Amino acid sequence: MAADKIIYYDGEFIAKFEKLKEVIEAEDNAATHRFLIDNFGYLFRVFQYYAKQIAVEGAQDLNEADEDTKCELMRPLSYRQYQMIERSFSTLKEEEEHVIWSVWDYLDDNGRIYEKKVMSSAEICGFSLVLMNVYMCLAR
Prior knowledge:
Elements: H1 11-25, H2 29-40, H3 42-57, H4 67-73, H5 79-88, H6 96-108, H7 121-139
Helix pairs in contact: 1-2, 1-6, 2-7, 3-7, 5-6, 5-7, 6-7
């Protein structure tokens, strides 16, 4: 069912997002890594689901969403989110902190997270890239 594959910016998601800031600020890479896996790792599976549905089945079940949600699912990335994807690819040791923060900054999107209803399919794809790069940075 599509409803469990749509990522809503509801109270639970926002609480995890705000807790992420606290975890990153603590500068404990192991705790940050664990928190990301436990609270945001499922987004990889959602991205794979979206990619398969669009490529193979035409995303028919995602079309069952209400019109406002369908519009939000099609929302493109903001310029800021593109910048965060790029920033997450840095391999420079002196930019490590920026890479780690890119995961929070990507979601925050200059405070726009509080105005959005759902995470768009483009945002899920971009977030997967950022998250993988942050994982690699935390593992160094």
